[in-house]
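Quick entry between incubations.
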Amino acid sequence: MRLRGLSMNLATVREQYTLAQAVDACLAQGITAIAPWRDQVQAAGLKETASIVRANKMRVTGLCRGGMFPAADKAGFKAAIDDNKRAIDEAVTIGADCLVLVVGGLPKESRDLRAAREMVADGVAAILPYARENRMPLAIEPLHPMYAADRACINTLEQALDVCDLLGDGVGVAIDVYHVWWDPKLYAQIARAGASKRILAHHICDWLVPTRDLLLDRGMMGDGVIDLRSIRAAIEKAGYHGVQEVEIFSSENWWKRPGEEVLATCAERFLTTCCLQEQSVTGE
Amino acid sequence: MRLRGLSMNLATVREQYTLAQAVDACLAQGITAIAPWRDQVQAAGLKETASIVRANKMRVTGLCRGGMFPAADKAGFKAAIDDNKRAIDEAVTIGADCLVLVVGGLPKESRDLRAAREMVADGVAAILPYARENRMPLAIEPLHPMYAADRACINTLEQALDVCDLLGDGVGVAIDVYHVWWDPKLYAQIARAGASKRILAHHICDWLVPTRDLLLDRGMMGDGVIDLRSIRAAIEKAGYHGVQEVEIFSSENWWKRPGEEVLATCAERFLTTCCLQEQSVTGE
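Done. Structure below.
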């Protein structure tokens, strides 16, 4: 039953399984929640994905991903808004708990981070009414500062919460330990996020030493230096008792292993390394 | 004359030149300031380095590096303190403007960043009286969060300034654009650093997109996405008009090129990309 606190972000087994195969493989391990990426949903078919989810009583803890707002021109920004509305529709169709936003970095040829950050706030503001109408919470995921240029110019939990405070209801944060573990203000900002009911997701993996690739060398929980249990304790203390979602990009290790081994290892490490004794899972 | 605002951190040409050769090569380009690493000084000999510097009237904008305080046990911490005092002696001998501190990351087997950060504050406090006696300013260099585990657990300018405020006089910060450019609070913290006279050094290079290696893929100024001129303007507005020191670790590009080409490119890019029109250089 404690595995009900675990969700598999399907990026973790993207090289091994289709979405349908991943659902079967998760259930075989006792894992009852997933978070797919849009390309995986598209490959499976949107309606077919919704059917698979329903038929298997899977929980969908998030759809990855909307965002990518900063653009070099108005047409690009408009295209991003339209695409994010489609992502909201897809998230609704598959019954996701939230749409995760990776907000985007600098537009081509730009060095103006401040302008990019304004475009992000404007972009989230532009889709928020549509998200509210459709009761789809938007989860801004602050990404590690090493992705500021090319993936997300929201790089700390504090910064993400500032944007949330600006925009009001219907938007919160996805706290991925990989992106925020280093932050000297992490614990204070987790408390802040909890106090304003902004925590929508908790993603886990580990930071390896050494890290050999900026994007594709994430570690399995327990193999790195992140104090997963302390962070979880802070998140629960802040009032969030939802699932922990494993998201591991690992081109040279986990993506090369049998999917069954990866899922079994995630389940085992979740229980031994991430899960608190007194953990309860809510929001189901 | 505008090249008097430029210093070469000798890591930039470490594969091409000994310290003595680097000084000659710098002077040939009109560059009159350097910042060596301790291994380079050791290879040249400490007294010999001091002679070379004096004979050539070079300015030494910093010695890299002290720090590395967090240790697994008391003996390790004591060894770090002793080593830092030797580094202060060396910095004094070669007439460096400051000793740059790369503070260290997690001790082996530790996941306790908070404890590591306390050891850093304790370590700087332990060497500060000796640094003050010897009139050697200590420059804490906040390192990019991607180095939190293995190199430095001080990862933002705000955090470094908090440590400075705790410790009082004789300690400040080295602002390296590579480490801080992404920070949403950068400009506010530069102003804060200036107001408390904490800016001791300004290091430059660029952030490449994509970045292929966490440590050794820094870019030449102008080749990446850092808004060097805006950051410089903020630093000057904050009251620091000292040199800009080029520090580029680049195993696959600049370390493989002829040293003369590297230095000439640094000088040219400094003038075209980093230097403000109204720049003046003081503190000489």
